[in-house]
Amino acid sequence: MRRNRFATFLLALLALVGTVLLVPSGTASAAAGSCDSASNWTAGTWYPAGTVVRYTDGKYYVAEHDNPGYDPLISTWYWDPYTCQGGGNPGTGKFPVTEAQFQQMFPGRNSFYTYNGLIAALSAYPGFAGTGSDQVKRQEAAAFLANVDHETGGLVHIVEQNTANYPHYCDRNQPYGCPAGQAAYYGRGPLQLSWNFNYKAAGDALGINLLNNPSLVQTDAAVSWKTALWYWNTQRGPGSMTPHDAMVGSRGFGETIRSINGAVECDGRNPAQVQSRVNSYQRFAQMLGVAPGGNLYC
After folding, report:
1. Which residue among the candidates 64, 99, 140, 151 is catalytic per the annotation?
2. CA-to-CA dists, residue 237 to 241, 242, 243, 288, angstroms
3. pLDDT by residue (tens digit) across 103-152?
4. 265 an active-site residue?
5. What domains are there in the chain, each with its CATH number?
6. Virtual CA dihedral for 282, 288, 294, 296, nearest 10 degrees?
7. Taking every pair of C-alpha atoms in the chain, what is the biggest distance, in angstroms?
């Protein structure tokens, strides 16, 4: 009995200071879900990423990363406030892709790419798939996931497969250099984040030190999804607008391709790659019950 009381005290203490702890053998685990199924937060309970809990103040929080019951008000890296609107996901409303649809879209996906990891990442950019009409929201979700499908071979690849490219992604002209190593900034994640300056910019925007810890993009599902959402919502790439602006501004799926890899694929450079993206978009749009719209090609 004394040992059990001490273990309980130790777990509670670790939850207060936010110390990283692996899942203890026999510790209860909470299921992920919406506000409708949210349980009351309890210190010492294992919460997978994407789990929604009701804190002691009556407010809801979503686990951004797996954790053993850290306090949401103290361990803010592990938890984000959660807005319940229609029992939906964080941000402006319910994400228009259900977990069942996600699994149907990516039947052979790597287990690293979890639906809960994506849901946990949405709080970083609540305007994503949450702006405009229901049709626009579904189109944007389909467009994002279609590009992800192409970039990762169906959410199979976590890292860039051509290892010969790895040393090329260090721009030594940047004042911060490449502190993680010459070959550390290769493509990772749903949109294959690469180059030291992109890791620096994404990390600064997300409040995560990715310049020094680029491997987080391939080991933490929520971080990985967040980097993809960072690019989608804030970067123009070789295009003239962000992919998010292209979809909510009715400029068409083709403009998302241009912003992601237009210098290599658009204007007739690689029509097969463009067609692959378009095929995925049309398939995903059909799954979500929405017309793909015009301007599909770049």
Report:
1. 151
2. 8, 8, 9, 27
3. 999 999 999 999 988 998 998 998 999 999 999 999 999 999 999 999 99
4. no
5. 1-88 (no CATH), 96-298 (1.10.530.10)
6. -30
7. 72
